[in-house]
Amino acid sequence: MIYPIVMYGDAVLRKRASDIEKGTDLTQLIADMFETMHEANGIGLAAPQIGKSIRLFIVDGTSLEDEPTLKDFKKAFVNPQIIDEHGEEWGFEEGCLSIPNIREEVLRKKTVRIKYFDENWNAFEEEFDGMKARIIQHEYDHIEGKLFIDYLSPLKKRMLKGKLANISKGDVDTEYRIAAPLKK
Ligand code: NI
């Protein structure tokens, strides 16, 4: 099942998501999230972006030909917990399926150490760096109620105000189905 993607302005994107009860069967939900993300050509999707305030996100960078480091990077992160971020900050132009057609440079630390469960409730603690770390940091922000535009300067934010208001109204071009909070 393909979910509509929740647009900027919806309160669910600003809530800290709740832990999922251990042992919950997530098979269908995770399959649906992958289907939804692939339909939208995304490389990461967090549960709040389909309206569910739970601590779950998925990533799939395997189709990015210019990022060979991601060729096996397809995973679900359940109840993840970032333990540490370190290394030099580096900038990259990020985008977000919930904030279509806006890309801005965000600085993030190079390496992230994270504890999480996979879709079968196997526990992991791993370190990721570079683009993998960035995707994880962006998606993890989603379950903390944070968005990449929060990192921008006040000036940049002011410049985006009109575009963001339009996104909240659903007045934006996407090739995927959206759910906009202020759509009339
Ligand atoms: Ni995003």
Task: Give descriptors for this structure.
single chain; 184 residues; alpha+beta; Peptide Deformylase; five-stranded antiparallel beta sheet; two-stranded parallel ribbon; 3 helices; binds nickel (II) ion
Describe this structure in words.
It is a single chain. The protein is α+β, with helices and mostly antiparallel strands and 184 residues long. The chain has one domain (5-179): Peptide deformylase (Peptide Deformylase, Alpha-Beta Complex). Helices cover 23% and strands 33% of the residues. It has 3 helices and 7 strands, in the order E-H-E-E-E-E-E-H-H-E. The strands form 2 sheets. It has a 5-stranded antiparallel β-sheet. A hairpin with a 2-residue loop joins strand 4 and strand 5. The relative contact order is 0.22. The mean pLDDT is 97. Nickel (II) ion (NI) binds next to helix 2.
